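A.,

Following up on our hallway conversation. C-alpha cells first:
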C-alpha cells in the first residue's frame, strides 16, 4: 500500500481585547509559505452530510476599504475560474465573468 502523504495549511488570528482580528498569518509548508501576513481571508468548506457550505470570513481592523473592494473582485474572478475547472459549464462561467466586469466597473476598480 502507498504511503499516505498529508499536507497542512494553518491560519493564526491575533485578536485585540475585544476579539477583533488585528493580525492574520498563514503557513503552507508544501507551498513554501511560513507565517506570511495577510489583511483578509475567506475560507469555505463543503459539508456534504448537511449539503451546505461553511465559511469563515476575517479581516484585520486596519484593512483599507479600497483594498477590500479589490480583494472581493479578485476573489469573485477566482471563483469564476474555479467554477469552470470544476464544472466545465462555459455558459455560467461567462455569466459570472460578466458580473465580475460589472462589479469592477461599478466600484471603478479599473481606473
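Then the amino acids I'd put at each of the 111 positions:
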Amino acid at each position: 500500500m502507498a504511503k499516505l502523504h498529508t499536507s497542512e495549511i494553518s491560519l493564526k488570528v491575533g485578536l485585540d481585547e475585544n476579539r477583533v482580528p488585528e493580525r492574520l498569518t498563514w503557513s503552507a509548508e508544501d507551498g513554501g509559505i511560513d507565517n506570511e501576513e495577510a489583511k483578509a481571508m475567506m475560507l469555505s468548506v463543503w459539508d456534504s452530510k448537511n449539503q451546505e457550505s461553511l465559511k469563515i470570513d476575517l479581516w484585520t481592523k486596519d484593512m483599507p476599504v479600497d483594498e477590500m473592494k479589490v480583494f472581493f473582485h479578485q476573489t469573485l474572478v477566482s471563483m469564476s475560474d474555479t467554477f469552470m475547472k470544476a464544472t466545465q459549464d462555459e455558459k455560467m462561467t461567462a455569466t459570472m465573468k460578466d458580473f465580475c466586469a460589472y462589479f469592477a466597473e461599478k466600484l471603478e476598480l479599473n481606473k
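The longest helix spans residues 65-87. Curious whether your intuition agrees with the design.

B.
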